[in-house]
Amino acid sequence: MSTDQQQVLFEKINDHVALVTLNRVAKRNAVNGAVTRGLAAAVERVEADPQLRVAILAASGDVFCAGADLAEMAAGRVDELSTPDGGFAGFVRAPRRKPWIAAVAGKAFGGGFELVLACDLCVAGGAAEFGLPEVKRGLMASAGGAFRIARALPRALAIELAIRGQTLSAGRALDLGLINAVAEGDVVEAAQQLADDIAQNAPLAVQHTLQLARLSADLQEETLWALTAEGLEQLLQSADAREGMAAFAEKRPPRWTGQ
């Protein structure tokens, strides 16, 4: 087994849900070259597998991710912490059609929080914390955190979090709508329940809807209407749309093919 495989684990929980786990516990799951390559490979694998519909990003140990490995940066290996297509950790800018759910049991700071913000949904444990402490080190949240946090939270709160460098508890993050749920038990199991619910829906419809939701903050409404019409036209021509309507009429569960 290669170092990359050891530091990022990949598992198919069932036919439609993948679990990707950061596994560099001794270094608080800080991002190095192996983690970057492993995450980039995991994204490619999820995208390439027609059976997979949802992915969960989790972590071993008590810390979700401490961000970039500063020792790697000090050693001059900064370039290994990103990829041309995926950006930091091979993930934050990676093109992804399918939804990703962050399952955060512990601390997600700096680049670790930016991994969470790059996901579409988040389930956290009661002990989870979120923060962007880069300004305390003379840096900035340059892996999307500085602007994604402003899309996820009310403006004043987002700015305070980004420039004060303080942290949010799981409960506070839930109250602000930053995360979807605080799990009472195992955070991965809670994320899987959410993933399974999503995976029951038509994959193409989920992907088209997700694309619009992701673009909503970037595009004018006229453009979004055009993309909606384009997406609906494609869906109406799909086998899944015909199957969905037939299943409803016949009062049976649909059998999705993703086509």
Describe the structure.
This protein has two domains: 3-199, 2-enoyl-CoA Hydratase, Chain A, domain 1, CATH 3.90.226; 203-250. It is of the alpha/beta class and 259 residues long. Helices cover 43% and strands 18% of the residues. A hairpin with a 4-residue loop joins strand 1 and strand 2 (17-22). It has a six-stranded mixed β-sheet with strand order 1-2-3-7-9-12, with helices on both faces. Strands 4-8-10-11 form a four-stranded mixed β-sheet. It has a two-stranded antiparallel sheet with strand order 5-6. The chain has helices spanning 3-7, 33-48, 70-74, 111-118, 145-152, 155-164, 170-175, 187-199, 203-215, 221-236, 239-250; strands at residues 8-12, 17-22, 54-59, 63-65, 82-83, 87-88, 100-104, 107-109, 121-125, 129-131, 167-169, 181-183.
Using brief descriptors, characterize the structure shown.
globular, four-stranded mixed beta sheet, 2-enoyl-CoA Hydratase, Chain A, domain 1, 11 helices, 259 residues, alpha/beta, six-stranded mixed beta sheet, single chain
Record field, number of beta strands: 12
Measured on Cα atoms, how large is the radius of gyration? 19 Å
Mean pLDDT: 94
Instruction: Briefly note the CATH topology name of the largest domain.
Output: 2-enoyl-CoA Hydratase, Chain A, domain 1
Q: What do we call the CATH homologous superfamily of the largest domain?
A: 2-enoyl-CoA Hydratase, Chain A, domain 1
Task: Supply the number of structural domains.
Answer: 2
Derived structural class: alpha/beta
Low-confidence stretches: none
Largest sheet: 6 strands, mixed
- The succession of helices and strands, N to C, reads HEEHEEHEEEEHEEHHEHEHHHH
Percent range of helical residues = 40-55%
What top-tier CATH class of the largest domain fits best? Alpha Beta
Distance between the termini: 35 Å
Q: How much of the polypeptide forms β-strand, as a percent range?
A: 15-25%
Shape: globular
